[in-house]
Amino acid sequence: MHNIIKKYLQHGIVTIDYPKKPVNTEFITGKPVVDDNKCKKCGDCVKRCPSSAISLKGKIGFNLDNCLFCSLCADICPVQAISMSHDFELSKKKREDLRAEPLIIEDRKLPSQDYELLGSNLKEKINSYFGRSLGIREVDAGSCNGCDNEINALNSPYNDLERFGMHFVASPRHADMLLVTGPAARNMELALIKTYNATPEPKLVVAVGACACSGGIFKDSYSTRNGIDCILPVDVYIPGCPPRPQALIYGILMAIESIGKV
Q: pTM for the full model?
């Protein structure tokens, strides 16, 4: 016991101050940005992108719901017109806000009224994430576990999500929010719907990572759906492959602020 107390005194407080204070972003790989003055529109970056996230209509643009933040576009650009920023606060309430070109919706239908998904409007509001404990259920809908590892890091002493009055729960029946990762594999589709239906109102759905936002690198695959919003109503999209814990915190707080008073 004495040794434990001694270590506490030696290390002090390690929890980050974000979002109360800005975080050091030097080590964070954010979204790609393009210098239009340098860009020659050669199309090399479009061909190199593994998830078809780059649009070359008029000028170079990035569909962040597809982007893996892999930096291959910046590496291959012959004139170095593309660079990776350090911006991680990229979450949006609408998927369209993450795109450089309009979103073409083909297979984005809720399965059936039997699943009670059509009445997805929130009936109540969470007054504050400090005023009420918020239960979060993480759902892996066919991910590579990259996003899940970042979600696990939210419980570390460094990020300490519970300081906001939030905690992860084992059952969707105790949850207020679903954090969904993966492109929605077809074998997980029914399980995801059942999890959503088991979550009591009011409830929030947050799509975590490029796969959950749009299908990512698995888009248009025979075995997956093109993102979570093909199955469930999504409140906030958090892009990235995978998004860092700070980006997850930002997206979670955005989801809560959209229905409550913070």
A: 0.79
